[in-house]
Automatic annotation (TrEMBL):
Superkingdom of the source species: Bacteria
Species of provenance: Neobacillus ginsengisoli
Name of this protein: Uncharacterized protein
Region Disordered, annotated ranges: 119-153
Residue ranges with Acidic residues bias: 123-133, 142-153
Length: 235
């Protein structure tokens, strides 16, 4: 017996095929039987054999409609033709099962190919969605960068270009730094005014009153100008 890769032999399957061969070999020339009767019997046995084809531990007749239609229904005519013609032409069991095994292999290959195609399409769709999401994210980030860059330009105009903003994220820091610099400049000016006032204040505070009194006290009386009014003469 040849080694089969997909077809699993069971007793009913083998028994029905032997009967099919015997009907077409021993009874075909029986004058008591009508050829139409033999043809009808051949069709019945062919359907029984087809239902008892087993692969992956499941008979065709026990498969769900979904699995059968998806994997094997497309090859129904091929299976049916091999079974009927093999029985009519008295093909030995090994050759018969080898032919069926090849058809099952073709059906399995087709199913596997369709499964891989579907998986590949799903992966492509997932990649497309991922790429689309990435493009949206990049576009959003670019818009955010543009907005931050515009804000940085505005800060640069306000600060007179004193501080160059290299990173848009430093806009807030730069603006705050610019304000602080202006406050610092104003503070320095105020400090200079205060310092000058302080100097004047110190000068006032160091004004020596005692020295002023001494100068007043040492002021000589003879140095005082005496005003003598002229007498008016009467005639």
């Amino acid at each position: 017996m040849s080694k089969l890769e997909f077809l699993e032999i069971n007793r009913n399957f083998k028994s029905y095929y032997r009967t099919l061969r015997d009907v077409n070999y021993y009874l075909i020339n029986d004058t008591e039987l009508d050829k139409e009767q033999i043809q009808a019997t051949t069709q019945v046995l062919t359907k029984l054999i087809y239902g008892f084809i087993r692969t992956n531990g499941t008979l065709f007749r026990d498969m769900t409609s979904e699995q059968y239609n998806k994997e094997y229904h497309m090859f129904y005519d091929d299976f049916f033709s091999i079974i009927e013609n093999s029985g009519v032409n008295n093909v030995d069991f090994d050759n018969f099962t080898t032919l069926l095994d090849e058809i099952i292999g073709v059906a399995n290959s087709r199913t596997d190919t369709l499964r891989r195609i579907k998986k590949s399409m799903q992966e492509d769709e997932a990649d497309d969605e991922e790429d689309e999401g990435l493009e949206i994210k990049i576009s959003s980030e670019k818009e955010d960068d543009d907005e931050e860059k515009d804000a940085a330009d505005e800060v640069s105009v306000v600060t007179g270009g004193a501080n160059v903003v290299h990173d848009p994220k430093d806009v807030g820091v730069t603006a705050e730094r610019a304000v602080n610099d202006k406050i610092k400049v104003g503070s320095n000016k105020s400090a200079n005014v205060i310092e000058k006032v302080g100097i004047v204040s110190n000068e006032v505070k160091t004004f020596d009153v005692e020295e002023l009194d001494e100068e007043i006290n040492t002021f000589e009386s003879e140095d005082v100008f005496h005003y003598r009014p002229k007498r008016k003469r009467y005639r």
